[in-house]
Design goal:
- By secondary structure, this protein is α+β, with helices and mostly antiparallel strands.
- It has one domain: FAD/NAD(P)-binding domain (3-Layer(bba) Sandwich), CATH 3.50.50.
- Helix content is 20%, strand content 19%.
- It has 10 helices and 23 strands.
- The structure holds flavin-adenine dinucleotide (FAD) and iron/sulfur cluster.
- The site of iron/sulfur cluster has 12 residues, from loops.
């Protein structure tokens, strides 16, 4: 057994990395166990094929025993190393119960006003660029974005203006990059075409390694152990406390201990770790006695891309991901159910098309790469206890997931295809090499089941131990010193990318942990200043229009 810590954090993604950032200044002894190494800085970071190696080749299984390759990114920073850095707040009504095509999206136990301050802090920490007041579905905010919106490249600006002229409400996508357009010679970010789905070679993307872990990892009270894969958690005889964290550190098993243990492995791996940690007192998996919900209610969004190729106009954009559209988020006239979000994604590059010429005929791949504008569509999937992560034996992870709420996604797709055609951007709609798992070689418009990049919901939080795994502070109802801080706590998935909410929650839980540890909050002055500002500042009210 190694030395004892105040707190152990397992995983350094959006949840774990941000939590570390919040706890480290307190001086409390924090041990961080991260399965992966630091992602190497090398030319392959920005090479289409070279970048595939940053996605794990590990195999999981679907309910029929078929292989799925989720392609998770196991490095310091987790999946944020390759993410697209679009950092959206959930809408105010996403926290309420709302009827969807396939059922009810349930109410969250804490509502938007409880999140607003933490969203503001999250946007500051991850340096989000955006513009308040442009998106009619955007929730109210006490402050504008900390950084100005990213400018559109000319072809995207043209499309933006065309959509506006049609009466639509496109708006600047909220993006976490370290960009200084006023003085590009000083800007860490160079607006390149290898951002979404790639690691950033120049460390200018707001991933959790760069924004959260690196700023604090050299503090004397922080110990970061990389290539330390946690295998299981041990509890006391009563089962009420975690007493040991068993990890394989570069091939050798070591047991670590701490007053408190935080699991932040991502929704699939966190629930798998808890299920693997079953013992006499927790026969169905750790923290799973009261609710039986560990691993259940997995959500991952209904996702797809629409690559629209114009035969009329080229799109030489490099950093394309600057626009989002929520005109259909809550539905449309004649359709009462929410449909979802549309946003631009990374630009299709010719390297991704070579060898697949037949899929694009009669277009040439040069024409596709030159003229495409690439869109990403997201519809909310609904929590269903039957959609679950299971473990079989010690290693095998089964992701038993059946998609729901597909009709509004299809409707959104058809609506957007129609608009793209009308505005000359959709002369051809072509498939896209699978964005979340590039190794699959799967070409599609709708993302297949193994696209787990937006994994959330396997340990939902709530007040009732019978219907939730975690309490409102993300502590396991059944285990006094065990927390889960990543995408697992989500009650519903909304239809915007999940990471800003994961970050905001990590800051929120961090403040709770600091109080529990008897430490001073690391951001009290800032929060107090914000509260003062709240009184002074104009409160931007952009309540949802529907
Ligand atoms: C290609 C791609 C693009 C995306 N784009 C966006 C976007 O634009 N906007 C957005 O909001 N979201 C995006 N996402 C989703 C985003 O990456 C996730 O929402 C986010 O990273 C989840 O944070 P997390 O803390 O829950 O888990 P993760 O970030 O996955 O972190 C989990 C961490 O735990 C570690 N770990 C796992 N198991 C163990 C173990 N047993 N022992 C020790 N460590 C372990 C992992 O290595 C990792 O560091 C994208 C995802 C992908 C794949
Ligand atoms: S666009 Fe900016 S943040 Fe993204 S990879 Fe390029 S330099 Fe890095």
């Amino acid at each position: 057994m190694s030395e004892h810590y105040d707190i152990i954090i397992i995983g350094t993604g959006a949840g774990g990395g941000t939590l570390l950032n919040r706890l480290a200044p307190s001086g409390k002894k924090v041990l961080v166990l991260e399965r992966g190494p630091f992602l190497p800085r090398e030319k392959d970071n920005w090479n289409y094929h070279g970048s595939f190696k940053y996605y794990s080749s590990e195999v999981m299984f679907n309910k029929d025993g078929g292989e799925i390759r989720p392609g998770f990114s196991y490095f310091v920073g987790g999946n944020t190393k390759v993410y697209g850095a679009a950092l959206f707040r959930l809408r105010e009504k996403d926290f309420e119960s709302f009827r969807h095509c396939d059922g009810i999206s349930p109410e969250w136990p804490i509502k938007y006003p409880d999140w607003e301050d933490y969203y503001t802090q999250a946007e500051e920490l991850y340096q989000v660029h955006g513009k308040a007041g442009e998106d009619p579905t955007e929730p109210w905010r006490t402050r504008d974005y900390p950084h100005p919106p990213i400018s559109h490249e000319p072809r995207i600006k043209e499309v933006f203006e065309i959509l506006k002229a049609r009466g639509m409400k496109p708006y600047p996508a909220p993006m976490g990059v370290h960009l200084n357009e006023a003085a590009m010679h000083l800007s860490p970010c160079i607006r390149c075409d290898t951002c979404d789905g790639y690691p950033c070679l120049v460390h200018a993307k707001s991933d959790s390694e760069i924004s959260a872990v690196r700023p604090v990892m050299h503090k004397p009270n922080v110990t970061l152990v990389t290539e330390a894969r946690v295998l299981r958690l041990h509890t006391s005889a009563s089962g009420r406390e975690v007493t040991g964290v068993v990890a394989e550190v570069r091939g050798e098993q070591t047991v670590f201990s701490a007053g408190m243990v935080v699991v932040s492995c991502g929704a699939v791996n966190s629930s798998a770790l808890l299920l693997r940690s079953a013992n006499d007192k927790h026969p169905r998996g750790l923290a799973n006695n009261s609710s039986g919900l560990v691993g259940r209610n997995l959500m991952k969004h209904v996702l797809g891309s629409l690559v629209g190729v114009s035969t009329l106009k080229a799109n030489p954009s490099k950093f394309q991901k600057t626009m989002a559209i929520n005109d259909f988020y809550w539905g449309e006239p004649g359709y009462e159910f929410p449909m979802g979000n549309i946003q631009l994604m990374g630009k299709t590059v010719i390297e991704g098309l070579r060898g697949h010429e037949d899929k694009y005929a009669p277009l040439s791949i040069e024409e596709v790469a030159k003229n495409s504008i690439d869109w990403w569509l997201t519809t909310e999937d609904l929590p269903d206890p039957k959609n679950q992560v299971r473990v079989e034996g010690d290693q095998r992870i089964v992701v038993d997931y059946t998609e729901n709420n597909g009709e509004p996604f299809d409707r959104l797709t058809e609506r957007w295809k129609g608009i793209l055609k009308e505005i000359g951007c959709g002369c051809h709609i072509v498939p896209q090499a699978n964005y979340f798992t590039p190794k699959s070689g799967y070409f599609t418009t709708r993302m297949p089941m193994h696209s787990l990049g937006h994994q959330v919901g396997t340990c939902k939080f709530g007040e009732d131990p019978k219907s939730s795994v975690l309490d409102l502070t993300c502590r396991a109802h059944d285990v006094d010193n065990l927390y889960v801080v990543d995408g697992s706590f989500f009650v519903s998935s909304g239809a915007v990318n999940p990471t800003l909410t994961i970050i905001a929650n990590a800051l929120r839980v961090g403040d709770h942990l600091l109080r529990r540890l008897g430490a001073r909050s690391t951001a009290p002055e800032r929060s107090e200043a914000m509260r003062q500002d709240l009184k002074r500042d104009l409160v931007f009210k952009m309540a949802a229009t529907r």
